[in-house]
Structures are given as C-alpha cells and as structure tokens.
Write a structure and sequence with these properties.
It contains 15 helices and no strands. By secondary structure, the protein is mostly helical. The radius of gyration is 27 Å and the shape is elongated.
C-alpha cells in the first residue's frame, strides 16, 4: 500500500538524520522496528526481515530487551505469513520469554557471579596456607558469609522487583485515570453537541452541530468501531457527509484525527476485554476489536498505555491476587 511505502521512506530519512546527529545511536532501534513493521504490513517480507535483523542487532548491542520483545513479535507475524511455522513459533516463544523476564535484573546476576568468584578465590588462597582444621573453619565461615550475602542480594532483588512492580502499578493507574478522563470528556462533548444541536435554530451552525452529533454517535457505535474495514470514507457515508467535513467534525470534537480517535476507543475497550476475557489470546482480542494485524494492535496499545498487552494483563492479574 502507498501509505506504508511513504512511511518506510519517511523512517529511512529519519535514520539518516539520527546517523548524522549527536543523538544516542540506540534511538535507531524504534525507527528500524517501525520500518520492519510497515514492510510486514505491506507484505515486503524480505525488507521486513532485513530491518528487523538490524533492529535486533541494535537492541542486543544496547541491551534493550523491551524492544527485543516487540521485534520478536513482528518476526513471528512475518514468518507466519511466509509459511515458516517453526520460526514463527520460535520467535513467539522468545517474545513471551522476554515479557516474563521484565522484572529480572541482569546486573544482579552478574553481581552474584562476581561474589561467587571472589569467595572461591579467597577459599583457595586460605587452603594453601593453613591446616585441615583451620581450613574447615574458614570454609564454614565463608560459607555462612556467602549464604548471608546471597540472602542479602536475594532480598535486594525481591525489593527491587517489588519497587518496579509498584512503579508499574502507578503507571497503570495513571493511564487508566487518563483514559477515564478522556471518556468523561467525550461524554461531555457529546452532551454539549446534543445540547447545542437542540438550541441552534437553523443555518450553517445547525448543520455543523447535527453532523458532529452524528459523527460522535457513529464513531462510538461498536458496529462500526470494531469493524476491521472501518474508515473515514465509511464514517462519512454513514453520517451523510463528505470526508472533508467529517474529518473537521472529528477534529472539533476530539482534537485528534480519525485514526487516533479510533485507536484510543479500541484500546480503551481492550483494557476491559483483557481483564474480563482471561482465556482469550492477544490475537483474539485484536481481531475482536477490528485489528487485522496483532502487531498493529500491540504497537497501538503500547503507544497509548505505555506497555504491551501481555505485561498489562500480567499486572492486572497480580493486582487481582493482591486484592484477594
């Protein structure tokens, strides 16, 4: 599709800007991922794999596991579309594993490894200069010290994970509050539109208010909102206007374009579906909400909520357990 080709060209130009600037080089990860995603959507699978490989290499270089999870998700979709089920399953598994590791700290593992090396080295030096009984005493002493230190590090890891979890809860609550505020604002807008529609007697203003009222009702109607083919053209036909006036009405109501409004409304519904339909997969929910591609759903979800659907679901399940 031409829109994906234009997007790919735009992102390539952005890469050149990053390469010629003083920006950190890891900025290119998200751009490379976007090029791979757009190429996959446009069915340019060889191009998608090329840029996903670059994104994967850059993520590995900068130790960015969060982006790696998204890269593997797109990989899985590409190989699924090309008929390579084995690789598709492999990258799906890798993506899930990285999501599960979101609370683990690699630095702590390295610290524990260094601690073990230090204790072993000290043991070896002492064993060379003391008798068997003294060596046994030192071994016991170091063993106890090691256990205590390991316990301290374990407690630190648990504390750090809980801290991250609390930060995630805070982020989650803030996102839900923003979404709730947005929903309240939409309801107020619709009330204002309905009120002004009834008070304006005639003329151009009345036509604009009537159009805004129709747009608000249609765009919030699940029949259209969750239709995979829902477009600005379809909405315009439904409200009996042209694309220009319909687009203007959307901007006046929501201060966003058509696609942004649709994504926000769909993702708002996704927040509820993920918690209520625990047995449904992310792909099932994406299809139910009108997304032809799971990748597009994940990218839209992460952009609005700030985390992937899998991480959001995990947090909500843990929150439910704590409530019990």
């Amino acid at each position: 599709m031409r829109e994906y080709v234009k997007a790919i060209d735009y992102y390539k130009q952005t890469l050149k800007v990053i390469e010629g600037s003083s920006l950190p080089k890891w900025y290119d990860i998200a751009i490379l991922l976007q090029i791979g995603s757009c190429a996959a959507e446009d069915k340019q699978y060889d191009l998608a794999i090329e840029y996903l490989s670059k994104a994967e290499a850059s993520s590995a270089k900068w130790d960015n596991e969060s982006c790696l999870a998204d890269i593997y998700t797109v990989y899985a979709e590409v190989f699924k579309e090309t008929g390579d089920k084995a690789k598709s399953d492999e990258y799906s598994r890798k993506s899930q594993q990285l999501d599960d590791k979101i609370y683990n700290s690699q630095r702590m593992d390295k610290a524990i490894a260094r601690l073990m090396d230090m204790v072993t080295h000290l043991h070896e030096r002492e064993l060379q200069s003391i008798d068997l009984r003294l060596r046994q005493q030192i071994i016991v002493t170091y063993a106890i010290s090691f256990i205590l230190l390991l316990l301290i590090f374990t407690l630190y890891i648990v504390w750090k994970q809980k801290r991250r979890l609390m930060e995630s809860y805070k982020l989650l609550i803030e996102k839900e509050e923003k979404i709730a505020d947005k929903e309240l604002e939409n309801r107020q807008l619709k009330d204002i539109v309905n009120q002004e529609s009834s008070t304006n007697a005639d003329g151009k203003d009345r036509q604009q208010e009537e159009l805004a009222s129709k747009v608000a009702k249609a765009i919030n109607n699940p029949k259209y909102l969750f239709d995979a083919d829902f477009s600005l053209d379809m909405l315009s036909r439904e409200v009996g206007s042209n694309v220009k006036y319909t687009s203007q009405a959307i901007h006046d109501l929501y201060h966003q374009n058509f696609r942004q409004v649709v994504n926000e409304l769909r993702i708002r519904k996704a927040l509820t579906k993920i918690v209520e339909d625990r047995n449904s997969t992310i792909k099932d929910i994406a299809c139910l909400l009108g997304y032809n591609s799971t990748t597009s759903f994940i990218i839209a979800f992460k952009k609005i909520v700030g985390m992937t659907p899998a991480v959001y679901k995990k947090l909500k399940l843990e929150e439910a357990k704590k409530a019990v």
